[in-house]
Write the structure tokens for this entry.
Amino acid sequence: MEKEIEIRMGKAAVQGTLSIPSKAVGIVLFVHGSGSSRFSPRERFVATQLHKAHLATLIIDLLTPQEEAIDSITAEFRFNISFLAKRLIQTVTWLKKNPLTKHLRIGLFGASTGAAAALIAAAQRPHDITSVVSRGGRPDLAGESLSIIKAPVLLIVGSEDSDVIKLNKQAMARMKCPVQLEIIPYATHLFEEPGTLAQVATLTTQWFLPKLDFSLRDLVSSAIIMTTLLLLASCTQAGTPVMTISSPAFLHASDIPTPYTCQGDDISPPLRISKIPQGTKTLALIVDDPDAPRGTWTHWIVWNIDPFPSIIPEGEIPKEGTQGLNDFGTPTWRGPCPPSGKHRYVFKLYALDTTLELPLNSAKADLENAMKEHTITSAELIGLYQKQ
């Protein structure tokens, strides 16, 4: 369900877009920065990803059209953070009273100056605000409120947005609540680079889900424990960085979207790699189905992958990579296609200290044998799929 709403605030009335997917487990209230609106494609993209995780959204314009017109000339509202925070708190009150949303826990997603307003609102309404995410935000503008926020906070900044990174780190130092900083490689302030906004959406979903939906706490905790154990096991020596592999398209231990399966476009999903250890010369990737009826079934193998790009785009062979034969007998990606039930698909990434000399059309056993003496560390991502 999606509809345009109006919230009266004294003599003013602000507009918003309320979207509630079926079986919604929480709601995220979006607070955009100056020069943006509820029709921002960036906010809408992130909201759409949240809907897939059964999170409702309200994207609100905290200024009236008349105030926006004045602000575009005088800039008198965009940095009036206390004014924006007051409007935001009134919106939170509306959510707590509205029959469609009053049962849902609330998270705040703030961009630019909107992030400061979100943090002030979280400080003033600790019993109503469960969590906060800032995208390219100015948390420093929240001032004294930073030290009294209780809700956990995620700060997301682009690696090329150096001034904002500095301001976010300064704000972190003043916070006493749980706070985490995520820096997206190669991203600038608006996350316009390919794949960067998808990373924002994934991080945002992963942050909000366990905090807004208490019914998922056990499931998410199990997934976190599983991931932690796998990552700890992958450290071959003290001091080795814990390499990770994730996907902007799906969460760890969650469903793989249909486009990446035999029922969709059958293209490989986008992958994100981080914390590659020093001494890594190449990467290798194996994707297996351990639940196949005849035993583990290999869907994709690639070696001699360039370790420097942090993103492998969807539908593309990893940079410099060589594809081997999967168990379908083809040197390509073959997506999930379980004959029955829900299967696990394990994406296992290896950091190697050498370039492998393997013949074309080598299979999984050949690759594993060649890697034996050259693996520095490894990481896993698990996706799930059941035919519709």
